[in-house]
Design brief:
heterotrimer; A alpha/beta; B alpha/beta; C alpha/beta; A: alpha/beta; Rossmann fold; eight-stranded mixed sheet; 8 strands; 33% helix; globular; C: alpha/beta; 2 domains; 24% strand
């Protein structure tokens, strides 16, 4: 991490807890770059997270107020804090399982209320911390520790889900698109209302190993190859499109 | 009034039994009494048999539910049949309307027949006001609460739309009570 | 410790409130400015009144998507500086248990009013019960303490909800008001004092918000946005909120302290009330609505010259062990009437040498005077 960002890290924090090759460390830095670009006052920032690897991105590392909550409930805690003190800039950073599976009901209701919460969902498409179990975001056919024959079910399209529920800023980027992602986080920070960015983040330890992407760099390369912008997808056949991940701003 | 007075208002859901109980209790509080009130709740209060009970006392009420009624208002045959035997023998009182309730033979408790339905329909053009007509008659014949307090209670708890109807119904009930007594 | 006298938001006088309404007024008087909840019979009137009252006093009300979200929003608001509460009944209380554990472990003040109904499960939603007493104490996993109070009247729905906020702020602990359907719907004369004692959480810039050496074991509590750069976590943590999930010493110390800070102060927390306990040979130990029936019967028997007394438990947790033990030394027999299968009777047995007779009733009705009279006469 660049020296200029050290002031955003809580004194006493020495290293990140993430596995080698995990995308969460990149995301951790990109969020701070967006905050630094906008010269946000960290004393007014509250970072709320649930349970899981991604919940450790802000807690306790960021040098603002951090609230590490129960599994799935980050948005409910954040709603209470934001409503009572609207001067707080409340950002929720948590994982796909936390926000969209166990916390799925809170996600759609928070979006429906359009409360001014900035939600970053670090999506590694699997339950990382608990040992690589299938998630509501695991692609169909992918192997996990609970779907040895491949996931038989369709995953959520989280962006469509929150857009349908009433979110007013919606985007999807991968940690392999750092420049666009920083821009998107900045827009989110300036947006008033429920805003949501799905950030694709590789999990080589739990996902890659089981799905023939053994080395961390293979997962990163795979994301680079598959993540395309909406306009790039236009000329593709159905089959070509199926293996791509459409990124970009969907609602702003 | 000495010691404790227990009043049971009964009928079926929609007759305003719960509201009448609330107003009676509130008036009691205005008069400086200690009151414990309870009523049917949930589906009961909406459809089938419905009751509202008010315990009046000069000192804090120990057991807050009704043990034996001193006064029963029975606004339906069903309610009368359930509660008519649970009224204090010598001093008890049952208020009813012959148009809707046929009293049981052999009961020694004092019954007062009040043409509440007729008065509601003829004088007030609303069957809905029967609950307050009963209250007026009860207050006139027992002085259980003061007129000022019950009027204050109606003003406090009844929305503007129905306030004047309820105050009219109270007067009609009191006239009825006076007639029966006088 | 910071306590102050405040003017009651209501003019001094007598009012006619249902228990649920009175609890809402007690909360407003205590300074509650945040409520999140989910509709459930028989507690909903409390939420409806809070929706109206909080708008008037400039607080925040929100109806959440479920009871889990309700308790979690309360905890988020509490850390943002609010005196916050929710109310519910059995099924919702079950859903809130994980949040209650979070509140206990992160020492987050909050008040939960449980208007108990006949369980288990959906049970009889509109009927009375008191089957949540042990759940209040043990409902979440791990070892922790809570405070639970038991009101027996509309007046106490007001008084004890107010006190619940004070205790919660003073000890940084979830406090439960274990009401029941009968008390929640009972409409009674209540008296409001002109001035009320109000406790606020203590603040100390830069102090560790999760650890303390010294007398009261309750650390100061800053709020979000005060520049303290708080780190709050439900994982095991050190004094400044750093996760310490591998450190046996910190785990033992934290669990020890959150239990000790309540148990060490139980004499100031616990309230009981004795009636005719001098020369009593039989004691009724009761709480909640059932204590009304209990005292009614005891009064009557005393007039007949029977040596019967009653101990009423206004605090259920921490359990009034000393008062119960003292009663147990005085009398030959104790009867515990309750609308469950002996949840408090079981506790009483732990502290007394004499016979304890459990009078249980779980039919969705309040225990009437006849039933207690009959059982006492048999003794």
């Amino acid at each position: 991490m660049a020296r200029a960002l050290a002031k955003y890290i809580r004194p006493g924090v020495k290293d990140t807890p993430f596995c080698p090759g995990c995308g969460h460390g990149i995301l951790m830095g990109l969020i701070l770059r967006a905050i630094d670009d906008l010269k946000m006052d960290m004393k007014r920032m509250l970072f709320v997270s649930g349970i899981g690897c991604a919940a450790w991105i802000p807690s306790p590392h960021y040098n603002g107020d951090t609230l590490h909550t129960l599994h799935g409930r980050a948005l409910a805690f954040a709603t209470g804090a934001k409503l009572f003190n609207p001067d707080l800039c409340v950002m929720v950073v948590s994982g796909d399982g936390d926000l969209s599976s166990i916390g799925g009901n809170h996600l759609i209701h928070a979006a429906r209320r359009n409360i001014d919460l900035k939600v970053i969902c670090a999506n590694n498409m699997i339950y990382g911390m608990t040992g690589g179990q299938v998630a509501s975001t695991t692609p169909r056919g992918s192997k996990t520790s609970t779907t040895g024959e491949g996931n038989p079910y369709h995953p959520f399209d989280l962006c469509k889900l929150v857009e349908g529920a009433g979110a007013t800023y919606v985007a999807r980027f991968s940690v392999t698109q750092p420049v666009s992602l920083i821009q998107s986080i900045k827009k989110m920070l300036l947006h008033k209302g429920f805003s949501f960015i799905e950030v694709l983040s590789p999990c080589p330890t739990q996902f890659g190993r089981r799905n023939r992407l053994d080395r961390p760099d293979e997962m990163v390369k795979d994301l680079i190859r598959r993540c395309i912008l909406e306009e790039e997808a236009e000329g593709l056949t159905e089959e070509q499109r199926a293996e791509k991940i459409i990124t970009g701003e969907f609602l702003s | 009034m000495i010691g404790i007075m227990q009043v049971r208002l009964s009928g079926f859901g929609g007759q305003g039994v719960v509201l009448a109980g609330l107003l009676l209790g509130q008036a009691g509080v205005f008069d400086g009494k200690y009151i414990s009130g309870s009523n049917s709740y949930g589906a009961q209060a909406r459809g089938s048999g419905c009751k509202s009970e008010v315990v009046f006392s000069d000192s804090p009420v120990d057991f807050p539910h009704l043990t034996t009624a001193d006064i029963l208002i029975a606004m339906s045959q069903g309610a009368y049949d359930i509660y008519c035997t649970d009224v204090r023998e010598e001093s008890g009182l049952i208020l009813y309307d012959q148009a809707v309730v046929t009293p049981r033979e052999g009961l020694t408790v004092k019954h007062i027949d009040l043409p509440v339905t007729e008065v509601s329909v003829r004088r007030l053009k609303s069957k809905q006001a029967a609950n307050i007509v009963y209250l007026g008659a009860l207050i006139e014949s027992t002085r259980i609460v003061t007129t000022g307090s019950i009027r204050k209670a109606i003003t406090m708890h009844v929305g503007e739309r129905f306030r004047s109807l309820n105050l009219k119904a109270l007067r009609a009930g009191m006239d009825l009570g006076r007639k029966v007594h006088g | 410790m910071p306590s102050r006298w405040a003017k009651s938001p209501f003019p001094k006088g007598r009012y006619y409130f249902s228990g649920n309404e009175a609890a809402a007024e007690g909360a407003i008087a205590a300074g509650c400015r945040f409520y999140s909840g989910y509709p459930i019979t028989p507690s909903s009137e409390l939420m409806e009144r809070m929706a109206v009252r909080l708008r008037k006093v400039g607080g925040i009300f929100i109806q959440m998507e479920d009871e889990i979200a309700s308790i979690c929003a309360v905890l988020g608001a509490s850390w943002a500086g609010a005196k916050a509460m929710t109310a519910t009944s059995g099924p919702g209380f079950s859903l809130m248990q994980e949040g209650i554990g979070y509140a206990a472990f992160t020492e987050t003040p909050c008040v939960i009013v449980d208007v108990q109904r006949a369980g288990p499960c959906t049970g009889q939603a509109t009927k009375v019960g008191s089957g949540d007493i042990l759940q209040a104490r043990y409902g979440s996993h791990g070892d922790y303490q809570v405070i639970a109070l038991s009101p027996w009247s509309s007046q106490e729905m007001y008084d004890l909800t107010l006190r619940a906020f004070n205790l919660s702020e003073q000890y940084r602990v979830p406090v439960m008001v274990m009401a029941d359907e009968a008390v929640g719907h009972l409409r009674e004369t209540i008296e409001v004092a002109p001035r009320i004692e109000v406790w606020d959480r203590k603040k100390e810039k830069g102090a560790a918000p999760f650890d303390i050496e010294g007398q009261d074991s309750v650390p100061p509590m800053p709020s979000f946005g005060e520049g303290e750069r708080l780190s709050v976590t439900g994982s095991t943590h050190d004094g400044y909120g750093f996760r310490k999930t591998d450190d046996p010493e910190i785990q033992a110390r934290l669990v020890g302290r959150i239990n000790r800070k309540i148990l060490d102060h139980k004499r100031s927390i616990i309230e009981t009330e004795s009636h005719f306990m001098e020369e009593a040979e039989i004691a009724v130990i009761a709480y909640g609505f059932t204590a009304r029936t209990g005292l009614f019967v005891v009064n009557r028997l005393r007039k007949e010259g029977k040596n019967v007394g009653m101990l009423r438990l206004k605090t259920l947790w921490p359990f009034p062990d000393e008062a119960v033990a003292e009663a147990g030394r005085k009398v030959k027999k104790i009867m515990v009437p309750e609308m469950n299968l002996g949840q408090v009777a079981g506790e009483v047995k732990k502290y007394v040498p004499c016979d304890v007779i459990s009078l249980s009733q779980t039919n969705g009705e309040v225990i009437g005077p006849e039933k207690i009279l009959e059982t006492l006469k048999k003794i």
